[in-house]
Amino acid sequence: MKRLLWLALTTIFLTKLALAVPTPTTLNFSASTESNEIERSTATPTNSTQTAVTKSGHTNNRKGIVIMVFKKYTNLLTFQLERSHQIAKDLLSDPTIVGVNNEEMQKATNMLLDYVAQSDISELAKLPPAEIPNRYYLAIGTMFVIGKFDAFVRQLNTTSEQDRTPTARLLWTALQRHGYQEFQVEVEKRYIELLETIVDDVGEYVTSLSPANREKDKQLVQAYDMYVKHPERYTKIEFGGSLFDVFFKEAAKAYE
Question: If exposure means fewest CB atoms within 10 Å of the residue's CB, which of 34, 67, 91, 100 is most exposed?
Answer without folding.
Answer: 34
